[in-house]
Design brief:
alpha/beta; Rossmann fold; 2 domains; seven-stranded parallel beta sheet; six-stranded parallel beta sheet; 16 helices
Length: 428
């Protein structure tokens, strides 16, 4: 049976990889999102004079879901604008979390109102699609939710532990009411989904530890397109150039980047690229030790990989950080943690170090600083590894998993009978 899938997501996650893949496979019924630069009034950003194109406008201009026919895409630009404004005005974590919950509910209302067309299945993002999952199941569709980060209970626990370790890096804790609301919405989505698409084993384990339906989890690693492949660089001398891309803060392990930079003065230079509200005290610590660029539009990010010798992401909690796939494709050895959910092979194309271990980070970077031949070898291995995780490979894995979703739905229905099997194993 030819599956036809409705996809729904806020933002341009992974440059719209999921709807682009399903469109290429002839599986996309319709794609719903908030705001992009190819539909409605946001198309006008391309006609603005250069002097009016600030970073925010350039980021909007980069939201171009290529390869998706216009008739198969609906953008809710008003929702996208209001959500962006609420995040800009947010002064507390509670404001950001409430905005996210409200945006997910509003997206669901709009998608349900527009309908599922001739779809046989629905694919949504975690904490954005509960009502859509319920409506899709009521219409007889199979359902899938992408768990693009670890279960919220683990995210929240690690965040609270880091806040105790680094009080200067945060201004307020996540209010328990909102933490509970995030976790409850997530669990409700698991209950409605026939498939829980996890990008890594780390994420699958977090669902299991939270009591989620691990038998319905399927692991589908991500992939990136070939634009991140850049020419081989030959830097056999000079300070090691260490790049970190991602939101600056506790979950990304930013204090450990700072500590590594302090210990490697004169041997390495560190650059952090990304958004993040860093309190004044922490920002003062960064100054003069780490170059902090702030956010850079996606269309301009390749230049950052070209600058670097090594990519560092000591995250405490991810799904499977897409910047690591990009760094590998760019030929950068990667130093990261098991909690980043990456495909890095320890000792081959990078190093996988324990979380919260600045000393292990420094040892890994120092080895590459001292042994440039090893650095060059790991850079080659990184490119080879990335070839197994390009967008085509991701597409094959994802389409296969979703083609199995109809079988999963039938098995769930059968489990409701007296003769149901006890468990169902979803092929990985």
């Amino acid at each position: 049976m030819n599956e036809r899938v409705v996809v729904s997501q806020l933002g341009a996650r992974m440059d719209y990889a999921v709807p682009r893949i399903l469109s290429a496979y002839g599986m996309l019924e319709h794609f719903y999102t908030d705001i992009c630069a190819t539909k409605g009034w946001p198309r006008l950003v391309h006609h603005l004079p250069a002097r009016f194109r600030g970073a925010g406008i350039r980021r909007l201009a980069g939201r171009r879901p290529s390869g998706i026919p216009a008739q198969r895409m609906t953008c809710f630009s008003g929702l996208g604008l209001s959500y962006a404004l609420r995040r800009m005005r947010a002064h507390e974590v509670s404001d950001e979390m409430k905005a996210a919950l409200d945006a997910g509910r509003r997206l669901s209302e709009l998608v349900i109102r527009h309908g599922f067309g001739q779809a046989t299945g629905f694919y949504g993002m975690v904490r954005e699609c509960l009502e859509q999952l319920q409506a899709a199941r009521a219409h007889g569709l199979w359902t899938a939710v992408e768990q693009n980060i670890a279960a919220w209970t683990l995210v929240d626990r690690l965040d609270r532990e880091e806040r105790e370790r680094f009080p200067a890096w945060t201004s307020a804790a996540v209010p328990s009411a909102f933490a509970e609301a995030f976790a409850a919405r997530e669990r409700a989505e698991w209950a409605e989904a026939d498939l829980i698409v996890c990008p890594s084993e780390f994420v699958r384990r977090s669902v299991a530890e939270d009591g989620g339906p691990v038998d319905r989890c399927v692991i589908v690693p991500y992939g990136v397109d070939t634009r991140f492949q850049i020419p081989v660089r030959d830097r056999m001398r000079g300070p090691l150039r260490v790049l970190t891309i991602g939101s600056v803060g506790l979950r990304k392990g930013s204090p450990y980047v700072l500590e590594a930079a302090r210990r490697m003065r004169g041997q390495a230079v560190f650059r952090m690229v990304g958004a993040g509200t860093v309190p004044a005290a922490a920002r003062a610590d960064l100054e003069g030790v780490v170059e902090f660029t702030g956010p850079i539009p996606r269309l301009e990010i390749i230049a950052q990989y070209a600058w670097a010798d090594v990519f560092l992401l000591p995250s405490l909690c991810e799904g499977s950080a897409t910047v690591i796939y990009e760094a590998l494709a760019a030929g950068l050895p990667v130093v990261t943690t098991p909690n980043a959910g990456s495909v890095v092979r320890d000792g081959t194309d990078g190093f996988v170090v324990p979380i919260r271990d600045a000393e292990a980070i420094v040892r890994s970077l120092h080895l590459l600083y001292e042994d440039r031949a090893r650095l060059f070898e790991m850079a080659h291995n990184a490119r080879v590894r990335a070839a197994d995780f390009d967008l085509s490979a991701y597409g094959r894995r994802l389409s296969e998993a979703l083609r199995n979703a109809r079988t999963v739905t039938a098995a769930r229905d059968f489990q409701k009978t007296d003769h149901a099997p006890r468990t169902l194993r979803v092929p990985a």
